[in-house]
Specification:
mainly alpha; single chain
Length: 174
């Protein structure tokens, strides 16, 4: 909401010696986030890479932001690999639902890896039934079933979507 170029300059000028290790890592994360907002991807990737390797408390968020960079650059393979890394290394992260949905959507819509995409989305709806994005996951899951040729499963999934989330925009599209 503020001036990202100014924030980036201030973060770059902070003396690392004046900060505790925790403050240094948090400042580095903020630097990466600010560089991402400014589309300065090489700087953001370097900062997030340092956070991932040195500060586990924010590593899941750093990995998520690395995935976002790959997505913005249309780097499909690194995007998928980074989402898989997040899910493997941080299965309890608050970002898991978002990462699962993003991975399932990417595998079904872009990569054509339908079976894996369906598996990821089946995990999503089973493990995150109350997430705000659950209707979207059901819609993508139904589309994945359709593309595989499992029309009965697709219809059942769309029916579940309509019954559980009748007011959602996804139910209208199903």
């Amino acid at each position: 909401r503020g001036s990202y170029p100014e924030a980036l300059a201030q973060l770059a000028s902070v003396s690392a010696a004046a900060l505790s290790p925790q403050e240094r890592h948090r400042a580095r994360y903020l630097y990466g986030h600010t560089a991402l907002r400014l589309k300065r991807y090489p700087e953001a990737l370097q900062a997030f890479g340092e956070v991932i390797s040195q500060y586990p408390a924010l590593a899941d968020y750093a990995i998520w932001n690395v995935a976002r960079i790959h997505q913005e650059l249309n780097a499909e393979r690194p995007y998928v690999e980074t989402l898989r890394l997040l899910l493997a290394r941080f299965p309890q992260s608050r970002l898991v639902p978002q990462a699962r949905l993003a991975l399932g959507r990417q595998l079904i819509s872009v990569n054509g890896q339908l079976t894996e995409g369906v598996r990821v989305l089946e995990e999503f709806v089973a493990q995150h039934p109350q997430e705000p994005s659950t209707p979207e996951a059901y819609l993508w899951l139904g589309q994945g079933y359709e593309r595989i040729g499992w029309h009965d499963k697709a219809m059942q999934t769309y029916r579940t979507l309509y019954v559980r989330f009748p007011a959602s925009s996804e139910a209208e599209r199903a």
